[in-house]
Amino acid sequence: MLTIVGGMVVAFQTVNRLSNRDEVLVVTRDVVLGQPITEANVSTAMVGGDQTVAMLSGQDLPKVMGMRAAADLMSGTLLQRRMLTDQVTPSAEQQLVPIAVKPSRLPARGLRPGDRLFVMLRPENPAVPSVKEPVGIEAVVDHTKGPDNDGLMVVDVLVNRSDAPRLGPLAADGQVALALMPRRP
Which residues form the SAF domain (predicted)? Predict the structure, then answer.
């Protein structure tokens, strides 16, 4: 008799768990930062619902088509709103400038897309007098990658179009330093 009652409890719990499943969006193929979301890389899946995780509902599939990945998305990841953007970078007023730096010259926590930087320009030219206040350009991290074969991290930064010609050559020669600025509230 105890075995029958125990079996009924297990069966009830199993059915109850299966009924608490929600249809959510899942990445089915790796999506690189900035790539559009398509039917080829996102689908729906049934998962056990947990109200503390902000997953996108399966009903949101038509809404996310054409949006872009705000970060690299790996296959099997449950999709969240913060992982998507409708912004394309660089915008018409911006240029993307890659800066290669040693990992030891980056914040220990790393850099994330959206982090604000002050890129200090330090031309190695003896004719340029030292200045008391650093000369620099404000930038926003678009993407990071590495370390590469040379042991360098590449930080792609977005800068105003007018600042790119000044930053580009100095970044290519390694004559910049990166300072992390506070996040905007």
Answer: 22-85
